[in-house]
User: Fold this.
Amino acid sequence: MAAPKKGRGPSGGQGRPGRSLVMILIAMVALTGGMFLSGHTTPRLGIDLAGGTSITLEAQNQPGKPNAINKTNMDTAVGIIERRVNGLGVSEAEVQTQGDRNIIVNIPKGTNSKQAQEQVGTTAQLYFRPVLTVAASGPEQPAPTGTATPTPSGSATPSGDASPDGEDKGDKATPSASATTQGRAVTEGLKKAPTPTPTDSGEPKPSDTPEASPSADPATAKLQEEFAKLDCTDPEQRSAAGKNALPTDSIVACGSNVPGSYEKYVLGPAEVSGSDVDDAEGAIDQQTGEWIVSMEFTSKGAKKFQTITSRLSQQQPPMNQFAIVLDGEVVSAPSVRTALSKNAQISGSFNQQSAEDLGNILSYGALPLTFEEVSVTTVTAALGSEQLKGGLIAGAIGLALVVIYLVAYYRGLAFIALLSLLVSGMLTYTIMALLGPAIGFALNLPAVCGAIVAIGITADSFIVYFERVRDEIREGRTLRPAIERAWPRARRTILVSDFVSFLAAAVLFLVTVGKVQGFAFTLGLTTLLDVVVVFLFTKPLMTLMGRTKFFSQGGPWSGLDPKRLGAQPPLRRSRRVSASTEPKEA
Assistant:
C-alpha cells in the first residue's frame, strides 16, 4: 500500500492548479493597475533612447598643488558627481573619466535633469572665514582707511551646545542691525586675524596667538588694492573673486543678499571647511517660514566652529561676522554674539530649489579638484531610435523563429509555451514601467538586448519541461501521471539553469558601470520572472491541459502522440515476465 500512496503524492500536491493561476492573475492585475494609477504607462528611457545632455568637464591646475590632478582625485570626483546626480533622482546618468583630465557626464532627459546639469561641475568648496571688512560694491572706490559699510549677505542662525560661560543652548547668531557701522580697515583687520597653521590633514588651523602683519607688507597692500578695485556688479569680476585661493590665504570675495545688490568682503584665512560638515539639508525655518540650509558638524568640526564663534563674539562689527564661502562666493555673513557649536543654519535669498540644491551638494562633499565646462552637447534620440528599431526588428524575427519551431516540433504544446511567453512579457513590461519612478530604472539599448536574450531563457525552461513529459510518455505512462512525474526532474534542471543565469547577471551588474549594468539588471529581472512564470503559470496550465480530451488522447496535433514519440511497453513488466518463466524452464 506504501507505493500507491507515494505515487499519489505528486498529483495530490498539484491537485489545485487553479490556485496558482489565480495568484499570478491577481499579480498581473495589480501591477497593471498600479502602472495606470501611477501615470507611468511606459518605461523610462535612457539617454541613448530619449536623448539628453552630454557635459565635458576639464580639471584645472590648483595653486600650490602641482600634482593634484591624478587618478585618485579624478576617481573621487567621478563618485561625488555620480552621487550628486543620483541624489536628485536622475536615473541612468553616466559619469566616467576620459583621458587624464576630463570627465564626461551624460544626463538623460527627465525629472531634475536641468538641476543636475547645474550641479555636476560645482566644486562645492565650503569654508567659514572671519570677516575683516565689508563694503557695498560698485565701480572702483578708494581703498578703505578706517571705516567700512558692512551689509551682511543674508543671515545664518547657528545653534548648538551651550557656550563655555554657561549661556543657554540654542543661542543664535544674528546679522548686524545697522546699515552703517564702524568697521576696520584691511590692514587693521589682517593684524588682528589669527595666523592659521596647517594641520596634519592639510586643513587650516588657527593659532592661539595672533601675529601682526605690518602695514607695509606687500601682501596686505595687494589685498587693499584688490578690494578697492573689486566691482561685484561686474559678472566677470564677481566670478573671479575668491577663486583658486588656498584656505590659508586672506581673500576678497563678493556676496549678495538682495538680487541686484552686492557687497564685497575682505576675509581672513579659513578656519572651518566643508569636510567638517557631517550632514546638510534644505528645510523651512519654523520661526520665519523662510527656506534655510541646516548643517550638522562632525565632532571635530563642532570644536572648530565653537572656537571661531567664541573669538568673534568678542569683536566689534564687522569683525564679529563669519562668512560662509562656497566656491569663492559669500553665501551668508552672520554676526556672532555667543559661542556656538555642532549645528548651524544658513539663511538668505533661498527658495526651495536653491536650498535643497545647496544641501545636496554639501551632503555629498566637495570635489577634490576644480573643473571647467569644456563643452555641453545636446544628444538627440534619433540615433538611438534607429538602433532600437533595428533591435526590435531583430527581436521580432527571433521570436517568430521560436514560435515556428515550437509549433512545428511541439504542436499543441506550443499554445502553452506562447501563453507563458505572453505572461512573462506582460510582467516584465509592467515591472519595468513601475521601477522607473520607484528606483530610477531607465531602459536603454543594452537593457533591450537583455530582454531579448530573456526570450531564449524562458523558452528553454518550457522545452526542458516538455521534454521531461515526453520522456515519461516514451516509457509507457499516460499523460496525467507523466506530467506529475516529469515535474520534479524538470524543476531541478530549470532552477539550476536559472540560478547560473542570475549569478552571471549579478556578477556583471556588480563589476561593470554605465549601460552594461542595464543589460545585467534586465537579464537578472527576467531570469527571476522565468522562475515565477514556470512555477505559477506553465506547470499549473500544463496540469489543466492534461485533463482535456485534446491532450489526454495524445492526438497527432497535441505534440504528445505516443506513436510519434516511439512509446514502448513499460520495462518493469517485461522484466517480471522473464523472471517468472526462468524457474519453470529449469
The radius of gyration is 36 Å. Residues 502 and 528 are 7 Å apart (CA to CA).
